[in-house]
Amino acid sequence: MAPSDTSDDDRAAGRPPQGEAESNPVAAEARRMPQRRSYIQKMAHELKTPISAIVSASEIMRDEQLGPIGDARYRGYVADIHDSARLMLAVIDRMLEHRGREPTPDMFDFAEIDPLELLHATVSSMLPLAERARIRLKLVEAEEQLPNIIADSVAVRQMLINLMTNSLKFTQEGGEIVARATIGSDRSVTFEVRDNGPGMDQKQINDGLGGILAEGEKRQGGGLGVGLPLVQSLATANGARFELQSEPGKGTAARIIFPKAQTTAG
């Protein structure tokens, strides 16, 4: 009996041939995707119970149901813990509902969102991580009133947290991260997260946006911004666009831009 042609079998199943996948990083990533999605879905299911417990416990503490906490700073931290845990639970519920598939507009609950209020909440939740890393995380207030954006609040928080987490991971101790929301001359609303970390060259930007990390290639702090493809897909599904500007030694500026049509100014 003649041996079967595995290349033909792969093509018939909609997979790239094995030899091609091994030599092509994009094809190799495509082969791993079904297993990765299954693993992510299982992990999401396992995480839901402990995250739900954190939500309940932090709510009791936030509302001081068993007595006063004391220092106002503790109340602020508890409120951030509760807010972050609720966000995580919403993300997990969405992953389970949609089985880890790529974000599309039909997954989201679009509503008017105050961009400054959302940015304030996100920066507040990330401050403890910045303090522990000895990095200054600064919020620059807008110089003028911004229109609300029309988007899914969970998705926008996800994007901002991913960008700030990347900056914290790759910026050296003593560095600075600046977050701001601005309005453009075309009435678009832009979220920007800028750091003075090591930066990236164009190949690293392209690989990061493609979710590709070449063997042995790693930025300081580990990884190559694996959250960037997620930010890009979430931005697209919410009617926004994602821009990344970086140069080696000059830091990185990441922007999520909501056009006028996706704001109340539209």
Distance between the amino and carboxyl termini: 67 Å
Shape: globular
**Computed Rg:** 21 Å
Broad CATH class of the largest domain: Alpha Beta
What's the structural domain tally?
A: 2
CATH fold name of the largest domain: Heat Shock Protein 90
Mind telling me the CATH superfamily name of the largest domain?
Histidine kinase-like ATPase, C-terminal domain
**Overall pLDDT score:** 79
Structural class, by secondary structure, is alpha+beta
Lateral arrangement of strands in the main beta sheet: 2-4-5-7-6
What percent of residues adopt helix (DSSP H or I)? Answer: 40-55%
Explain how this protein is built:
There is one protein chain. The protein is of the alpha+beta class and 266 residues long. The protein folds into two domains: 76 residues; 151 residues, Heat Shock Protein 90. The protein is 50% helix and 15% strand. The strands form two sheets. A five-stranded mixed β-sheet has the order 2-4-5-7-6. Strands 1-3 form a two-stranded antiparallel ribbon. α3 crosses α4, α5 runs parallel beside α6 and α6 packs antiparallel against α8. The longest helix has 38 residues. About 5% of the residues have low confidence.
Write out key terms for the chains shown.
single chain; Heat Shock Protein 90; 266 residues; 15% strand; 8 helices; two-stranded antiparallel ribbon; alpha+beta
Secondary structure topology:
Elements: H1 6-12, H2 18-23, H3 25-62, H4 72-98, E1 111-113, H5 115-133, E2 136-140, E3 149-151, H6 153-170, E4 176-183, E5 189-195, H7 202-209, H8 228-237, E6 241-246, E7 252-258
Parallel strand pairs: 2-4
Antiparallel strand pairs: 1-3, 4-5, 5-7, 6-7
